[in-house]
Design goal:
The chain is mostly helical and 373 residues long. Helix content is 52%, strand content 4%. It contains 17 helices and six strands. The protein has a two-stranded antiparallel sheet. Helix 11 crosses helix 12 and helix 14 packs across helix 17. Keywords: Hydrolase. InterPro entries: Q_salvage. This is Queuosine 5'-phosphate N-glycosylase/hydrolase.
Amino acid sequence: MSDSEPDLELLELLRQHIAGKPQVAAEPDTGVLESAEYVYNNSIDVALDMRSCKNAARAIYSQMQTKSYSPATWAAHELHPHPSKGDKPEDVVAFIFTMDLLNFCFWSERGEEERFSIEYKGRRWTGYWSLVAALQRALEEGIPITDPHFWQNEEELTLSTLKHVFRSATSEEMPLLAARLSCLREAGQILYEKFSCHPLHLVTSSNNSAARLVNTLASNFSCFNDTHSPPSFPRKKPIRLLKRAQILVADLWACFEGQGPYGKFYDIDKITMFADYRIPQMLNQLGCIQYSPPLETAVQLKRDIPSGSNWEIQLRACSIWCVELIRREILRENPGARVNAILIDFFLYDTIKEMENEGRERAPHHRTRSIWY
């Protein structure tokens, strides 16, 4: 055999060796935390105060312990669906998918009595709870608002229908109704084409991986693909924030308390906080996040901050990194603590809403209109 001829026996041995050791697929990762750290390391308008982050970690964990904060807290709310309330698991999954498909942009410049609100069960609901209340009300009225077949029917589900579903107790309409209709249309089509027209099949396709389910949502549904390439952060990979994709997974996990085919995710701790406008506000109030003078002025004066702009990406990404540092500090001081970014996010959101209701907010949230949050 000459030097130029291949050694067929050696090649066969190599084939057998490779065949005998199947390639192990890399564990899925959302890329959100990596994106957040990258933005934080290159941010010029948002900074973290490490001492305040440590103090916040101690206070947050203490209050979470006092309130017995856990995934069960989610299901305890009267508006959230749950099997213990007689809801079928498949209906709960459909409700959560619909809820987080439309879970964005509820803020208003009007006062509490004039802002968009939903009348349901003898009281008015605003913000995120107005969405949940409207969905529950629609189902009680016989409107199949959580059915992907309904979403695809352009004769039955029109903008007028959606206006009826989200009819307000005030003169202010729900923001971005046309965008919400587009989200329903797209999701109905994708579920029909790829997931047998039901979110159940989408969820089970993840094989109990939270990160895989987030990535599946982002790659298949443009309305979940919360990724950005702002000019001040030039790099080949877009910045991944994926708020609604992540919160959908988190809501499933919380609702089913980390159990069963729809709530058990072996990598749930890969989910970060959900970068919106409320958590940055709370972190700023805690002194954990600080703004440059121009950004501080824009926030205080309630000026519009465009979606995907440098300021907005810094606000959201640095908040993700801030909560990650708080989580690490809690675990450093309390080894074995059952806490993750999801529970910290839920706790901070509930806290800032309580402060808003009691008039104890010291600073406004930033103003951005978008479908991402």
